Predict the structure.
Amino acid sequence: MCGIVGYIGEKDAYPIILKGLKRLEYRGYDSAGVAIYNGNEIEVCKTQGKVSTLEEKAAREISRVGTFGIGHTRWATHGEPNDINSHPHVSNNGELVIIHNGIIENYGSLKTELKKRGYTFYSDTDTEVLVNLIEDVQKNEGVKLGKAVQIALNQVVGAYAIAVIDKKKPNEIVVAKLGSPLAIGIGENEYFIASDASPFIEYTNKSIYLEDGEMGIIRLGREVRLRKIIDDKPIVPYVQELQLNLEQIEKGGFDHFMIKEIYEQPEVIIDTYRGRLLAKEGIVRLGGLEDHIEKFLNAQRIIIVACGTSWHAGLVAEYIFEELSRIPVEVEYASEFRYRNPIITEKDVVIAISQSGETADTLAAIKLAKSKGALVFGVCNVVGSSISRESHAGSYTHAGPEIGVASTKAFTTQITVLTMIGLRLAQAKGTISKSEFMRCLSELEMIPEKVEIALKTEDKIKEIAAVFMNAKNFLYLGRGYNFPVALEGALKLKEISYIHAEGYPAAEMKHGPIALIDEQMPVVVIAVESEHYDKVVSNIQEIKARKGKIIAVVSEGDTTVGEMADYVMEVPKTPEVLTPLVTTIPLQLLAYHIAVMLGRNVDQPRNLAKSVTVE
Ligand code: M6R
């Protein structure tokens, strides 16, 4: 995710763009930049760091005068966060300037082609490729900016919201959208563009939201013109009157970032596997992994180090890797690992999982592993973070910024990456049949749809939350792949509602926790279709016999557990190896609604920090 802003009108563009970028920093904040037309030329200023850093740099380096410009706040995907990779990007002839939110998947082949035609690239970004492709089209076809953007986009595979300006046309912004959001604000003789309406809500409540596959030509003094990118078909713009206030817009209309992020999961899981998983072709490929695959295949074991929710994702990976690729896996709390003089050799591969990439214990654990000669592979969300830089190799999750302290979309995107790693290793080792491999790939591709379906049960989960919001304790049980999900469900509840909750492997209950069960005790049991379904059913019976209240997560259409449980939360049927990606959803929603009903500060729970950079 990145944030984009643009202005064309009679006011000073720079302060409007700068304020808009600050409002969009929730979408990314590793670098920022602006391009302002000063009446003569387009002045570009960009920098690694937050918008406040840009503000200081721009005050020193550019005039900031002009009524036409664009700006960007970045969440790096291609190329680490630094000044050169920051947006805007300028085409080789110095005339076109672009800002982009999204990923151009085929940028590699386009770049090779453009290099052959004499283009030079200064950054590692996919965006710089696109702006030069547009320049190339303009040059070769002799067409205007709008047409050149359209022709170029028809050669592009990926996702984007872009705004392009041309030095020769300082009264026009060309925008286009596929997969990433873009809104046009319509004021009195002025236009705004932005990733959401927050940058322009104080100037106008009239907005056009572009649909996927649409582009627009915004020119001062005339109405916005929209077209289909694919076939140039004109579209009549639908102008909406916005009813939202600023805070609501930043949260996308949701009450909290946590619930917004829960609902983003279908989209960010796609972002995470996009370009890496080609189910029909039978390909799963992660750049960072391919370079070191031999090391993985010959590893005597894989050690996973992480903390909190990321550690739970690591536990899921243990089940997946051992089942699919038959490589021994150990999962360690980073904080324990680093202090217990672990035995590590060059034959080990250490995977560090971290949303922030800044967790102090995880960082220290990987430094220790490196010092003993192990290969360190990072699975991080924040591009350019300390853990990603300290690792020998890695794969990013593409969850976008996670603002809510309780991790949600980071967890499911971590599992998505780890599942792809497990499948790739299994394929390379020959420990999975071709048909099972193909089935897993296409099922993984369908997970976002299934997550959407699971999200639709929110109203029912809200009712369950209302029944149990005053419970003092909760027990969460699961087996196999869903044991870590039980741990994660319990962590979600305790960290945002402050209700005591414990996760256990379902069969372990009778070795102690069963003593806690009485009619006051809600027990959340993950009882979806699986190899151990009958065993879980027996565990449910044991709880029922002691009058515990059963809240069961079941597969759609299940009647056995349905009849035994007090409440059920249904999720779509899924191959067992992928179930954590869907069973997690109702548990996130349950924790969220209980916390809201108790009036807790859901996004910033007491005593917690989003990123734990101290031991
Ligand atoms: O940024 P990391 O993934 O390294 O963070 C690890 C934990 O601090 C984090 O998962 C924490 O447990 C969350 N608050 C859980 O929701």
Observations:
- The mean pLDDT is 94.
- The first helix runs from residue 13 to 23.
